[in-house]
What we know:
The structure is a homodimer of 336-residue chains. Chain A has 336 residues and is α/β, with parallel strands linked by helices. In chain A, 43% of the residues lie in helices and 18% in strands. Chain A contains twelve helices and 14 strands. In chain A, the strands form two sheets. A six-stranded parallel β-sheet of chain A has the order 3-2-4-5-6-13. In chain A, strands 8-7-9-10-11-14 form a six-stranded mixed β-sheet, sandwiched between helices. In chain A, helix 1 (12-19) crosses helix 3 (38-51), helix 8 crosses helix 9 and helix 10 (227-239) packs across helix 11. The longest helix of chain A is centred in the C-terminal third of the chain and has 18 residues, at 299-316. The first copy, chain A, is elongated and about 85 Å long. Chains A and B meet through strand 1, helix 4, helix 5, strand 3 and helix 6 of A and strand 1, helix 4, helix 5, strand 3 and helix 6 of B. Chain A binds a DNA duplex (16 and 16 nucleotides) through helix 2 and helix 4.
Amino acid sequence: MGKKISASRVTADDVARAAGVSRSVVSRTFTKGASVSAKRRKLVLEAAEKLGYEPNIAARVLAGKASNVVGILTGPLLNPFLADLLDKLSDGLREAGFLPTLFKVDTASDAKSILPLIAQYHMVSTIVMGISPSAQISKFFSGQSQMPIILNLGVLRDVEAANISTDHFKGGMLAAQALLDGGARNPAVVTRQIEAGIYEERAAGFRYVLDQAGVQCTSLQVTEGSYQAGHEAMLRLSKSEKHPDAIFFGNDVMALGGLDALRIDLGLSVPGDVAVVGYDDIPSAALGAYRISTIRQPVRKLASMAVAAIVDFENSGAADLTTSMIAPAYVPRDTI
Amino acid sequence: MGKKISASRVTADDVARAAGVSRSVVSRTFTKGASVSAKRRKLVLEAAEKLGYEPNIAARVLAGKASNVVGILTGPLLNPFLADLLDKLSDGLREAGFLPTLFKVDTASDAKSILPLIAQYHMVSTIVMGISPSAQISKFFSGQSQMPIILNLGVLRDVEAANISTDHFKGGMLAAQALLDGGARNPAVVTRQIEAGIYEERAAGFRYVLDQAGVQCTSLQVTEGSYQAGHEAMLRLSKSEKHPDAIFFGNDVMALGGLDALRIDLGLSVPGDVAVVGYDDIPSAALGAYRISTIRQPVRKLASMAVAAIVDFENSGAADLTTSMIAPAYVPRDTI
DNA sequence: CTGAAAGCGCTAACAT
DNA sequence: ATGTTAGCGCTTTCAG
């Protein structure tokens, strides 16, 4: 019990000695674009292989090479949309040669305590997603020599960072149009209250199209984006004076809860009695028993743009703090 | 466009100068358990605060301090169970002062290419989860001076690593017992074929209890653990000679697909005509339209034990390569 | 308790 | 193309 693990590490000097060359040659061998004769390179590679040498990143970074680690400050991974985004992000980052390190927090206020930590690691970039970037975070960014990226948090005016996001206003518009096309006369929208205005943007786009069409809209705001919250919101909505015949849920998880309330608790038919649209297009939205019509976020595009921004930053040395809004798409299924 | 970001960093020397002390004092101030007079400590802290100093981790590690980064080699995060596990793991790791960095791969063979990368970072530990630890990975571990942890991959004989897992055999037993208690006469099990034997362990436990009870069991193996796979498996099962009246799906996602096949495609009632048990207890299993009876994996426990193992390793300097199997629990819902 | 000095392993001029 | 040298920012003896 308690197996001792060999702690000795093989250094470039060891390899140099074994290969009968200087340390520089070893370093160059492992630096792409450096000049080493084929003969010595082979010598070094063989020695390295035999000794099991791997360059020490800490030393490399300290010696002035850019670190290739990018921080990901994310909200709860129980959120299927975030998990998906993280998945795509790690793929993209890895392909581009970056190493994602995770700072997961449950609330925006948790994030504060993590900021100093992030600073210590001299990341190339840190990507913020799934939590509202408070003033605190914004201020932190402006003091760092790294590329700050805010991912999918909608329109943000006060943050100095590259802002890459789904166009949530547009998403809301698509939802409204779909519902209208489906014959909605009395729509409602349930949004979630969070610092970042993404749910509000969705709702605003929704109402905008409705206004244009001269249709009134009921709004309901809940504090969580959960199944429970969607369920309760639906029940509450059904008790209001004007029974809505079409509901736009701010995300799919809430739509799931709302649908169950509608069909199981209220005994209504969807889309017969009430039409429903969700948002995100998480896997559960496609489940046979739900098949929720929803607004699909461009996860892959979001991820690849974030990676591209970091690559650009490395090449140019300057952060391009542009805002990019990517249009989502309507996915028709069986709830409209 | 293209905002230049200030690249200058504040070093311990800067702080020392500003505080009128030597660099050593600054270092000690930031090393817990070092001796610095209250007066100078205050001086240093103030100067550090004013200049926005954060110790450079790369330098610290290079100078001999243990790195606090632990690698997580994980399978696809689209797997809700893995996402959940990762979520809990990052929380635990952070509380214990570790920094999780992510190596996400889609298949076990992808993992090979990542191994050298992991070596470069001199992690304290790396945790493998959601992919089958091939011989390649095993061999890699044995050469490293870090704590290797295999998380939730079942019984593994050939790997030199701490093995922390749900007791999948036990899980299978629970599933069988539940189905038997529900009156199953003609059960079936659908497992997934992967290198690591976890699905096979579940099925083995399942069959073991059935054998004891003198009940025959149909087995079906699929290549993916997806909704689609579960759906197709169910359809196939229904066409076989002996129509099963109880199905154990190797995971909840497959159970979801199977349930839809049962109710929507086959027009059968669950649990009236056929009983179903899943495995994992992912959020979707609890959805109103499904409410799958399932075997819940001890995610929190899994995560905390992994963290504890790393903490132990840091304290003792020796890796405790014990195998720990944690019992899952049966969660009765509406499909039995 | 404090400061001086010696590295940790690597890269990047700088001379060959 | 190669070797030599000087750091990167920090921790840690070692004297004082």
